[in-house]
Amino acid sequence: MVGLKEELLKSIWHAFTALDLDRSGKVSKSQLKASWVVLSHNLCTVLNVPHDPVALEEHFRDDDEGPVSNQGYMPYLNKFILEKVQGNFDKVEFNRMCWTLCAKKNLSKSPLLISDEDAFKVWVIFNFLSEDKYPLIIVPEEIEYLLKKLTEAMGAGWQQEQFDHYKIALNTSREGLSAWELIDLIGSGQFSKGMDRQTVSMAISEVFNELILDVLKQGYMLKKGHKRKNWTERWFVLKPNIISYYVSEDLKDKKGDIILDGNCCVEALPDKDGKKCLFLIKCLDKSFEISASDKKKKQEWIQAIQTTVNLLRAGSPPPHKEARQKRKELRQKLLAEHKELERQMKELQTANENKQKELETVRKQLEAAAARAAEEEKKRLQTQVELQDRFSLELEREKMVRQKMEEQVAQKSSELEQYLQRVRELEEMYKQLQEALEDEKQARQDEETVRKLQARLLEEESAKRAELEKWHLQQQQTIQMTEAEKQELEHQRVIKERALQVAMQQLEQLELERKEALEQYEEVKKKLETAANNTKSWKDKVAHHEGLIRLIEPGSKNPHLITNWGPAAFTEAELQQRQKSWKGKKATSE
Question: How many beta carbons lie within 10 A of that of residue 467, not counting itself?
């Protein structure tokens, strides 16, 4: 009811402000009371509210305490009229009554391209789209919305650039337009050039039906009767909670209503009984079969009815009212942000002024401090001159003492440098001696490795020789066998000869490896002799220089045994042991 009360107040405001005033802008008490009596009686009549003249007389007494003023009428209007409104009244008749009271005084005398009836509809649309503050105005955003709706209804193209120029010119002078200025704008044909009066009138009526009468869709369709089952053409009007159908589009002869709620549904039907484009509206108590003129109209009606039912289920207002509320909320949000930005700018400006004052105070303090610092600097310079004269003598004495100390330090530094040079030479000789010892140690390890390799080769050689002797004995035994076994033995002999050849090849390979080992031994021996000579040379140098280091010489070596292939890598006792082993193997093979 709060939204209904606000809508009623806008129309009543126009009628209330149209009361006759004298040239000074004031009226007498009798004139005010007479105007309010007429206005109140008309309002009670069109709003279906019982009129109480006693309460009106009581509220506006002709004494000094009676609130006989424009502000005094509003409490009476709210208490005795608006709070009793139930919504069971004709909105168009109510608006027409308020229009009648205010149009004659405010409507422009210049000729317009729209009729008085169209001007009335524009005035009602203005009350719907205007801001909730007085005096009533419509802001540029809502003007653009209305003009776009009218242009779309006329089937013309929207000229955004033309409206942007108009909007800029409007914003430079004021916030919006009054109802009468809006009527002049639409009646001037500025945004409907090329359109005839009838087209503009039909567009205004279409927008009026949608925004004010809540007509979501209307048109002719065929309806199937519930008793006689005949098909009759009716003019259907879809509103947010009802579908009314009339004999014709003049809405004079109403034939019935289809009450819509969240339980209703709409569905398409297949063609039957010679009727096409059928659909069914199901309600709790009754269903309605309807035939549209074509498939496009059928789909549009089904979609429009289903959207209306969905809005009823969700408890949402009609789309145009919800869109208007969203636009208002957006403007309020932008206005709040703008105010907040202005507040912040003021705060920043105040803070900036405070900072400027603080900086001025600091500047004065700095100037005073600079003056004091200059005086102190003058005193400090005088003191400094006196100190320089006094310290110059002491500085001369210090220079003489420093010169003597530098001479002593230079002498000590020279002695220290000689001592450090001798230490470095000793350290270098010690490092070279360490390297020579490491070379000798590595040479001995290489010699031991070669000796072990020679021993392994000799052992493999003795094993091969024993195997060869064994094969030779087996060949002699096979010759003495009988003739019957000769062929078999001959075959085995061939195999063994092949094995013997392989063994001979392996023996030759071992001979090559032994020669390579001997060459490696010679190289290691040379390295060992070189390392020994280097060690002896460094030992002599160190002993001659300091006499502090005693070298450890390697012990004497026993003479090496000589074999058919060169020097052996084992002692006399090891050779005797190997000979015993070979003889034992030979005896076993025989």
Answer: 16
